[in-house]
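Exercise 7. Predict the structure of DoxX family protein from Hymenobacter nivis.
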Amino acid sequence: MRYFTRVCWVALGALFVFSGLIKLNDPVGTAYKLEEYFEVFAKDISPFFLHFKDAARFLSIFLSSLEVILGVAVLLRWYLRQTLWVLLVLLVFFGFLTFYSAAFNKVTDCGCFGDFLKLTPWASFTKNLVLLGLWGVVFRNQRFLRRTFAPGTMGLMMMTVATALAVGIGMRALGHQPYFDFLPYKVGNSIPQLMKAPEAARYRYTFTRNGETKEFDQFPTDSTWKYQAMTVLNPEKSRPTITDFAVYDLEGNDVTKQILTGNKLIIIVQNSNKADRERFAPINTLLAAAEKSRKHIDVLAITSTSPAKFDAFRHDVNLAVPYYTADATVLKSMVRSNPGLMVLRDGKILAKYHYHDVPNLYDVEKLY
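Solution. The predicted structure, encoded as tokens:
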């Protein structure tokens, strides 16, 4: 039991550190997931939860950092009993969220491991039950974990460093693009390629005749067989990675193909009401220079804001470029900043920039 307890202890601490770091890699994405939960709770339980939406980014950093800090405390056995009680509160909280999502099919991905690993609602709940099991083993057998690796002042210093690192990692990612991009729109990916299925769908057909059931790899030509069902044999490989990328002009015409052709410098404004207006001065300078580039760069904006509101907004910020519309969720996946910049060549993503990291024209031209 001593060795089993130690395995559970390491697994419990390491999983919390890993889960927290994955979320801190993309705190904006974690905040989006929290907002989704708050909207569900506001609709199903009380409108009061909508008040938490404005604090989603703070809670993203706080909860993700807390996971890392508690995981480190477990691994160091620093105030282990007290740490385990706090962990229990967190596990019960996440257990409630995942059970609610699974039982009522409200949030299809809990965001437990960010975009690194997608879990179904029931898989997320099962993961929390496993963590509760690990917690139970460690809590019940603390006598095998009496030695503290960093007692006294040393422990306090190590926990302070862990806290500073966790918060610092999250704050740095909050003001820039994620350190590691696990979404389809990461640099190096080709949007047109990901809009195509890797391979053609393969099917298995089920037919019956005179009480006999038979499966076919090809649709039978014998009309005496009666069709019952069709099963896709390669559902994952026959489904495109990107299924919702579509861009429209102001008349509602689909211009996706034009957007994915040639050299493009795109400014993405997810929501003009929440866009940081003070950051448009350097952006406008870059866009104006790009329009005169010898690289023949098309400059444009894509937004999910209605044309009437965006017209007023772009006049306020002097954004003198043609603009198009797209789904808000897609734009949030493309760039984790509002506004943000994306550089394309025939639909291949060459670079993405947070509004804190607006490049100069020379840096953009080097990409082509």
